[in-house]
């Protein structure tokens, strides 16, 4: 086993570019796609009325009621140019008692901003109406005091803790893309079995005193170590360099990633069992792999896929279990006990797929 | 030392090797000769225990190797037809790996690598990547990889396919040295008649999965001792003339190509005078003709009815 591992590492040492490109690809994909899930934190506001600065000041304080969105006064031209160039999704043009949204297309972030602005303007309109009816300016502060301590108050609470966990799709996508790329790396490594079979090196090994168990272990361990290396490098980079939310229990996350890697290596081995040449593998594997995250709902918010058939198919692949376990650890502080079932599922998939895969490979050799 | 008894192999019902009986004595060099698709590679794959025969036995010193492949794997080295090497690694790294899988390590491995490289004349380029080697050098390294554990039996499956004459001679010389100096038993398969003639003490001729002749070179040539081979050069080729030649009494086989004819006929059949007479009748001029000593190629032609390199 050591000699197989050694020779595979030698090959990677000679040509490290492939692995490095995959790591870079993983980071790039996360940036491109996870970065695209934009929840606007700062929204430009401006007014073109005669008393523009007065209006802007008034609405700026009213709109900035919490930390979820920060409204910032900018020049009208700047706001329009930024929206036009796609630098920002939305800007708010303020009027005395009304507003207009400056947008180029109906993005999800637009309705998010609109909801907030609409709420603030409606409330202000109601208060203004009451003040006008009553004719007393004190009514405003009375209403504000009343609302601050209203008889019915909504308090949200998490099931396990007082704090409601905040779901972050960017984090989910980070793992989705890291795992997607890792599946390609491990596939490439597992395909070395077929490569060596075709070249005749496999036969040389069979004729040597090395056992088949050691041969397979060498290839599997090589795929496992390289893939896990890629995942860990990407995670560490996102956690410590780009300050992504990867959770505090990094060891448990890496452990889940390790189970996922083993399980996917087995799936790749199963696919290897059905093919004869490395070229067939290169044709089939990249066609199948991108479907796995899609079926597993890795690119979508949890609960998006509700079709029981799709959910059943997703459960057949390790990715759904890995994503579920990792999201539980990161967002809900789940421990080893909590994710044990997901780990066992991955292990089961791994053992079954590896068993069938090796069996098929051996049958083809006879 | 090693023998096969009624060795057969079928793939999807098609028999590719049928009842092959062959034996190798200790220190002997034996050739397995046959055209492509004759079943040579399948036979040696069975002998080296890579594939299991459908029926028959393989015995190493009386012990069935099908049930106990360990001993033959330990004492034999196989040089496959394909280049079973890591192209992206150096020759040294390749040999280090192939030595390590035979549980060689440390000084023993280092010594083995250097000896093998020296033997095939690649010690000066051992640190170069295999992909930068010429075809002949790759073939030599392919042999070196099988020599590391000092096998008593070396099985070579067409080791000179697709290489230049110089590299070919180098390989043949290497194999000869292994056999004559180190006493390694050689089983050499090829479809190059001259290689087998040069290297081997005994030959097996295989065609369509069967051994069709066996023996020393002299024994095989004696098959044609009752025949004459006559090569004739004509000023033009005429199909009718060829057909008439075939009808001459004593003629067994006629091969015609361009302006040449090769005729195998029974000894003493007075063929030349009949041929001159027939040529005059067909207005064909005989430019040149000579009687040939039969070669193994002729033996093969005689036995199979086709040329070896078809």
From TrEMBL, chain A:
Any Pfam family matching the protein: ABC2_membrane_3
Alphabetical keyword list: Cell membrane, Membrane, Transmembrane, Transmembrane helix, Transport
Membrane topology: Multi-pass membrane protein
Keyword hit for Chloroplast: no
Domain ABC transmembrane type-2, residue spans: 136-364
Regions that span the bilayer: 17-38, 173-193, 213-238, 250-275, 281-302, 339-361
Domain of life (superkingdom): Bacteria
Compartment annotation: Cell membrane
PANTHER family, sorted: MEMBRANE COMPONENT OF ABC TRANSPORTER YHHJ-RELATED, MULTIDRUG ABC TRANSPORTER PERMEASE YBHS-RELATED
UniProt name for this protein: ABC-2 type transport system permease protein
Native organism: Cytobacillus purgationiresistens
UniProtKB/TrEMBL annotation, chain B:
Keywords attached to this entry: ATP-binding, Nucleotide-binding
ABC transporter domain location: 2-233
Pfam families: ABC_tran
Protein name, per record: ABC-2 type transport system ATP-binding protein
Amino-acid biosynthesis as UniProt keyword: no
Organism name: Cytobacillus purgationiresistens
GO MF assignments: ATP binding
